[in-house]
Predict the structure of NAD(P)H-dependent oxidoreductase.
Amino acid sequence: MKVTLIAGSNRANASSTNLLRYVESLLEAQQIAVHFIDLSELQLPLFSPDNWDFHPNVKHVLEAIVDGDGLILATPEYHGSVSGALKNALDYITGNQVAGKPVLSVSSAGGPLGVSSLSHLQTIVRNLHGINCPEWISIGYGMNTIGPDGTPLDEGMKERVRNTVNSFVGLTLKLTAATGAVN
């Protein structure tokens, strides 16, 4: 199984990216192949529907999405929604690249939770015909909830993240078994 992770912040050392690195470590501990894309390092030009001759960075992201059996998207919460960097990346995707794939949404916010960004992200996933994982991960950055490596500091939060990742892995295995398309 392969999972593509996209860190949707263009900020260095973003809490959402750090949390996604922790999720990556949980997947790798289960011997799951991971393709990690950090949009702060792999910048994409602004999407335009007038230009379908994509930049090499865009092609890289799209190939990673198509190649993965599942997708995990992480975003900071900006003004109650997803980051512009992640939204721009998602605008390049067509429905057939995500259709039927499980998608886990992850968010960090300056307040207690990033629920608005997760709701928006799941709406985008539905419009791309992806299958939203019934769980999501949301942390409040202002509450010192994760360490510098992304590991949740609270044991309850750490367990919730592990359980959510396991739920996502289970969903991915079920969906790939149903279609016979494990990468």
Notes: The first strand starts at residue 2 and ends at 7. The radius of gyration is 15 Å.
